[in-house]
Prior knowledge:
This protein is α/β, with parallel strands linked by helices. About 40% of the residues lie in helices and about 15% in strands. The chain starts with a strand and ends with a helix. The model has no long low-confidence stretch (mean pLDDT about 95).
Amino acid sequence: MKYLVTGAAGFIGFFTSRRLLDAGHQVVGIDNMNDYYEVQLKRDRLKELEPFEHFNFLQLDLADREGMAELFKEHKFDIVIHLAAQAGVRYSLDNPFAYADSNMVGHLSVLEGCRHNNVKHLVYASSSSVYGLNSKMPFSTEDSVDHPVSLYAATKKANELMSHTYSHLYDIPTSGLRFFTVYGPWGRPDMALFKFTKAILNGEPIDIYNDGNLARDFTYIDDIVEGILRVAKNIPTKNTEWKAEEGSPKDSSAPYRVYNIGNGSPVQLMDFVKAIEDAIGIEAKKNFMPMQPGDVYKTWADTEDLEKVTSHKPQVTVSKGVQKFVNWYRNYYKV
Ligand SMILES: NC(=O)c1ccc[n+]([C@@H]2O[C@H](COP(=O)([O-])OP(=O)(O)OC[C@H]3O[C@@H](n4cnc5c(N)ncnc54)[C@H](O)[C@@H]3O)[C@@H](O)[C@H]2O)c1
């Protein structure tokens, strides 16, 4: 099979590409290599993919309409796994237009590419942040998600709406994956695990928001990639029973699905910090801070649907996953 993986130099895109290549698929990876975080980390991820014979990389911006149209026309992909985006909640407060360009225009370029080139399945990254002000736990794809609290979240919800429109109009099967705080080796420098590990090893204090009263459904990268690849094989069909008046938001009369992809067990931030301290063997100096605008208090994924469709339940515990990250970090940065 021929796959397009967007954001192939990114954290999740890199692991997804590697798994596909290991399984013998052909992968074209694209990424604009932006400097939202250290570009060397993106280059080094790509270095790991270069030895694969069936891997091709192209530096391309999603918002480059002609470039994207040419790419789709040239390769005629079977399946598209669209992971490139401007990520991060806090950055969206100061850089809103980065989200308009990469997440809105970018998603449209991908949809147009799928529309004109007979792509069999588009799997794309949404986010747990779409749950915004929802307080019913666990977060379910049966619930409405109309109250985002960051522009980032609003663009991810918009991606789901745009995908539904294209599924309806052009019969493109689309599956949206709401990722819940993904962590692991080669992870993102703007996320808590990376920042805390770096600070603790440098003897610097860590900033703990909302005095530590936060919880996240941390999901290890291998569990995420397993879920992505299993969903990719499960091409959604039209739900002929679906009716607008009583139908659930998670599917449709169009070949459209959204899934939560998370661990299914929230961890308190202070327990997460303890796991990092244990993995490093040093106690952190802690700066307790107020709640950050745009953040949510707790995330918890209802993953029943995903388990039903993929027969996969996340396996990796936070203590094991954090230890793997810390081992990678110390080896990569030689600290
Ligand atoms: N990591 C998480 O916890 C998490 C949680 C929820 C959702 N997500 C979503 O999952 C996807 C992957 O996230 P990640 O953690 O791997 O992030 P990442 O930033 O490591 O990867 C995204 C990649 O996309 C590239 N990119 C950004 N804008 C682009 C553009 N306009 N054109 C081409 N390439 C572009 C970046 O250079 C980067 O390498 C994103 O859509 C993100 O919003 C991630």
